[in-house]
TrEMBL record, chain A:
Entry's family note: Belongs to the GatC family.
PANTHER family, per database record: GLUTAMYL-TRNA(GLN) AMIDOTRANSFERASE SUBUNIT C, MITOCHONDRIAL (PTHR15004)
Pfam family, one: GatC
EC number: 6.3.5.-
Keyword terms: ATP-binding, Ligase, Nucleotide-binding, Protein biosynthesis, Transferase
Species, as recorded: Thalassovita taeanensis
Gene Ontology MF terms: asparaginyl-tRNA synthase (glutamine-hydrolyzing) activity; ATP binding; glutaminyl-tRNA synthase (glutamine-hydrolyzing) activity; transferase activity
Top-level EC class as recorded in UniProt: ligase
Gene3D superfamilies: Glu-tRNAGln amidotransferase C subunit, N-terminal domain
GO biological process: glutaminyl-tRNAGln biosynthesis via transamidation; regulation of translational fidelity; translation
Function: Allows the formation of correctly charged Asn-tRNA(Asn) or Gln-tRNA(Gln) through the transamidation of misacylated Asp-tRNA(Asn) or Glu-tRNA(Gln) in organisms which lack either or both of asparaginyl-tRNA or glutaminyl-tRNA synthetases. The reaction takes place in the presence of glutamine and ATP through an activated phospho-Asp-tRNA(Asn) or phospho-Glu-tRNA(Gln).
Protein name: Aspartyl/glutamyl-tRNA(Asn/Gln) amidotransferase subunit C
From TrEMBL, chain B:
UniProt cross-references to Pfam families, sorted A to Z: Amidase
Record's protein name: Glutamyl-tRNA(Gln) amidotransferase subunit A
The entry's keywords: ATP-binding, Ligase, Nucleotide-binding, Protein biosynthesis, Transferase
One GO cellular component term noted in the UniProt record for this chain: glutamyl-tRNA(Gln) amidotransferase complex
Active site: 78, 158, 182
Domain Amidase: 25-475
EC number: 6.3.5.7
Known catalytic reactions: L-glutamyl-tRNA(Gln) + L-glutamine + ATP + H2O = L-glutaminyl-tRNA(Gln) + L-glutamate + ADP + phosphate + H(+)
GO MF term set: ATP binding; glutaminyl-tRNA synthase (glutamine-hydrolyzing) activity; transferase activity
EC class of the enzyme, as a word: ligase
Subunit structure comment from the entry: Heterotrimer of A, B and C subunits.
Gene3D superfamilies the UniProt entry points to: Amidase signature (AS) domain
Amino acid sequence: MSIDTTIAARVAKLARIKVEDEALPALANEFNTILGFIEQLNEVDVEGIEPMTSVTPMQLRRREDVVTDGNQQDKVLFNAPDAREGFFAVPKVVE
Amino acid sequence: MSDLNKLTLAEARDRLRAKEVTSVELTEACLAKIEASGALNAFVHKTPEIALEQAKAADARLAAGDAPAMCGLPVGIKDLFCTKGVPSQAASRILEGFLPQYESTVTQNLFDAGTVMLGKLNMDEFAMGSSNETSCYGNAVNPWRRGNDDTALTPGGSSGGSASAVAADLCLAATGTDTGGSIRQPAAFTGIVGIKPTYGRCSRWGVVAFASSLDQAGPMTKTVRDAAIMLGTMAGFDPKDSTSAELEVPDFEAMLTGDVKGKKIGIPREYHMDGMPEEIEALWAEGTAMLKAAGAEIVDISLPHTKYALPAYYVIAPAEASSNLARYDGVRYGHRAKLAAGDGITEMYEKTRAEGFGHEVQRRVMVGTYVLSAGFYDAYYNRARRVRTLIKRDFDEAFAAGVDAILTPATPSAAFGLGEMSEADPVQMYLNDVFTVTVNLAGLPGISVPTGVSKQGLPLGLQLIGRPWGEADLLNTAYALETAAGFVAKPGQWW
């Protein structure tokens, strides 16, 4: 399957990365090179093989359902590009 | 006392305990060397005040007789580890100015043992690269050169700053991380030792995530003994990482006997790649002969799905990266783009990520987005995860047949020149990890040991792959190989 500039633009949109129109042909080309490389996987017979979910046979641990952390508003907001009155500030989301 | 920065961890530890040297003296020697080595661009955030404070505290502990193995030893920390109050950028513009308000478990373990942090080390952006050329800080440079040729060479990647700093004796050792070969390939390119432990051995908490099912931290050191010492301090169960293994950490150093008599060493036939340089084949044959002479039994083995490891990796790793890197949105930390009048939240995300991420990171996030998108998830992502199951099965079968360790080349070539791959397509760069990436996909421990030099005078390394949780035995086999190879070459100082 070949990636054209329309698909490249759609992927960039999904990834929330702004790509200028003039950069799309080169990007589509790179995708095609990488996907061409990945196509080799189609040679492998994977019939009846489970997709790996965990590389070590282990069950995720569970812990007591109790609060173990919190009351760190200052630390949570410390690195925010824009924090006001104890909140993260962002541009208008709803028209 | 001169050249304290050239000591190994083991030598420095022994001299500290014998009161022949202090941690402050060791630390000052390294700090002076770092100041004089800007040309390598290895240290990108220096922390001399923290280092000297930690060194003084370590000297007090040593004086009181409370001295764990790493106490007082100055090391460098890869920029991927979050260190409290100290820039931790993953070599990305998007994390410019980020000051973590917490400490990663691995660095906390090191500090609890009295280890001294000299600063943060250069790397590929978000650990995505094999040459340290994707860093927002610029290239780290390999202290090794091709004889008298002054071409600047890559130290490898992604842990390129760590490799360069250890090889150039700017620090006694360094932390690295390895998702597809990012500890072992740079170690091989710079003539040092690097081990990627079994997945789950070192906590990932506080390590900036690239591909969570593959990422592991490990030490990069001058010797195998040093790797054993430092891994013992970095490793351990951590309830804050749900994939951290609840297992005892053995005394790795105590198990270095060098005795490999009767050990079965597998030589996988699929690792003889087409077009592999003759000197790499020769290095591998010599390493095989060394282990045989040391009493190991050499057996040919087959890992039939080897060829599919890189393509599977380049589906799984970008997929996980696209998900992990979604958090860089300009809201909670790091860079936010300047917005134009009328820009809303979507423009903020798109502009922030376009400005903050470098080209390779953008490319991988978008490839990951594509392979996870509706209609392609099964064809790409699920197929790659099935192939991953088969790759792990290959190793399981080799170990079930009695193989104790597997010997392979670490890299398909010696270090190449910075910029030499700039015209190549991305897949050419990815091929650097052809021998190492299988190990991440199977979650196994792997170690790179320098065993020879190329015709051009550059270091070359071999890789040993061990059983899951078998780091002690793996380190011992590596120790036997290191002893037999007797690699002592150092780069001539030009910087």
